[in-house]
Design brief:
MscS_beta-dom_sf; membrane; 3 domains; Alpha-Beta Plaits; three-stranded antiparallel beta sheet; Mechanosensitive ion channel family protein; MscS_channel_2nd; 7 helices; SH3 type barrels; transmembrane
């Protein structure tokens, strides 16, 4: 019993406890500082994921250093262990090349402010809401299907942040009076503008001339996340106007010549 008490009260145990306590205090202070910085300076959550990833890395490194320090304090020769860790680190580095590529691209995304949490973006032909971002992966909720799509950052070559401006192209007959069409479609734009979630809507005018029709354009803006519900409501309003006013959408015409 006396030997056990002596061992517990020994300098080595006391020093080991001090090392552990210092490591815990330092990490707690560092995490508190980082949380305060994120709260004050990162309302868009652009660097939050980077800071959290760095903190996790620091936590692992501090844990390894604490273990080595405790072993050294208690008389364990760690020189061979350090050499072994170095060899293991080289092997792990080779095996984790893709992870390092993800980290580098994640840092690029954060530093370039390419997008932030909640943005609707197009990445690799997927249009979705950014629901999660880390230095390793980006997760999108597809606005078309609702699927959650996880993309490794190393596979992101280009990104587009969707602004939420959409065009409706309406084909009408060539013999329609342009002034009458302007009045009718301006009224349709005003009806679309009253739809909930629509920021604005306006009649833009003649877009182009096709082989069988004149194409008129109406443009509206809404949250990209509400694109399809708003689009369907807008098309309903436009259909009502077309039916009420008697505008005709022509069939494609083809001239056939007998030789």
């Amino acid at each position: 019993m006396e030997k056990i008490l002596e061992r517990i009260m020994s300098t080595e145990i006391f020093a080991s406890a001090v090392v552990v306590l210092l490591a815990v205090v330092v990490m707690a202070i560092l995490e508190k500082i980082c949380r305060g910085y994120i709260k004050r300076n990162d309302p868009d959550h652009r660097v939050m994921s980077m800071i959290r990833s760095v903190l996790r890395t620091i936590r692992v490194l501090v844990g390894i250093l604490v273990v080595f320090a405790i072993l050294q304090i208690n008389g364990v020769n760690i020189s061979s262990m350090v050499a072994g860790v170095g060899v293991a680190g080289a092997l792990v580095g080779l095996a984790m090349q893709d992870i390092f590529k993800d980290l580098i691209m994640g840092l690029h995304i954060v530093s370039d402010k390419a997008f932030k949490y909640g943005d609707v973006v197009i990445i690799n032909d997927v249009e979705g809401i950014v629901t999660s971002f880390t230095l390793l992966t980006t997760q999108l909720k597809d606005v078309n299907s609702g699927n959650l799509v996880t993309i490794c950052n190393r596979n992101i070559s280009a990104t587009s942040v969707v602004c939420g401006i959409y065009d409706i192209d309406l084909p009408l007959r060539y013999d329609e009076d342009p002034e009458d069409v302007k009045k009718i479609l301006t009224r349709a734009a005003e009806a679309i503008d009253r739809i909930q979630d629509v920021e604005y809507c306006q009649y833009m005018g003649v877009q182009r001339f096709d082989s069988s029709a004149v194409i008129y354009k109406i443009r509206f803006k809404c949250s990209p996340a509400e694109k399809w519900p708003v689009w369907r409501k807008a098309m309903t309003e436009l259909q009502k106007v077309v039916v009420d006013t008697g505008l005709e959408i022509p069939f494609q015409q083809i001239d056939v010549h007998n030789i």
